[in-house]
Design a protein that fits this description.
Radius of gyration of chain B: 13 Å
CATH architecture of the largest domain in chain A: Orthogonal Bundle
Structural class of chain B: alpha+beta
Order of helices and strands of chain A: HHHEEEEEHEEEE
Number of domains of chain A: 2
Number of strands of chain A: 9
CATH class of the largest domain in chain A: Mainly Alpha
Largest interface: A-B, 53 and 43 residues
Helix content of chain A: 25-40%
Shape of chain B: globular
Order of helices and strands of chain B: EEHH
Oligomer: heterodimer
Largest sheet of chain A: 5 strands, antiparallel
Strand content of chain B: 5-15%
Distance between the termini of chain B: 14 Å
CATH topology of the largest domain in chain A: Arc Repressor Mutant, subunit A
CATH superfamily of the largest domain in chain A: Winged helix-like DNA-binding domain superfamily/Winged helix DNA-binding domain
Shape of chain A: globular
Number of strands of chain B: 2
Largest sheet of chain B: none
Strand content of chain A: 15-25%
Helix content of chain B: 25-40%
Low-confidence stretches of chain A: none
Mean pLDDT of chain B: 83
Low-confidence stretches of chain B: none
Amino acid sequence: MKFTPDDPLIWSIRTFIYEHFVATTEAPTVLIIADRFALTVDEATAVLTALHEQHALFLEAERPVIRIANPFSAVPTDFVTEVAGKRYWANCAWDSLGIIVATGARSASVDAHCTGDDQPLRVVVANGEVVDNGALAHVLVPFRHWYDDMVFT
Amino acid sequence: MQWQADKPHQGEVLALPTLWSLSQAWYHDRLSPTYRSRTVAQVEAIFESLGLTSDFWRLGYAADIPQK
């Protein structure tokens, strides 16, 4: 069983996955997706695989488990974004701000640590703008190598 | 991408306002039902609009790969 990129169902499920992240801070399981869309587990797995192949999300290796739906992370990370009382895991510094943008929040914060000195770092967004505290973001991986290892990127 | 106290020896460094602008350009429509993975050309256009024009931000071999 395989779903193609032009199948509307996979994009409807993508929308549901993001709505689930926003509402619960967690990724839906394949069982939740299958139940919501009246699919078999095999069909829901095939949809997730199709979305993974489109880089619309990223699955755990060899398992139909959502790991990343940028900017959201389904696993704990050192990049925590708080929006409207909910705490989301982001994949990196960029994505920690991306969660604020994607959710349309005008007030939010990010808690993380600086690499090297391991000091806690807080970034604040107020009235729809980031408050510049002098923080620097280090991008380690060149664009052309992003997909060599997406989790590391 | 990680937060950094000092300038590192490799990779690129973005000041917080630039990273915020990049996040806005990249993620403003991410929750839209009509959002689709970007092409490499679309990604490079975003980078260029923010002045990210060094080789670091350029395409290598990944021309046909849809972007995150």
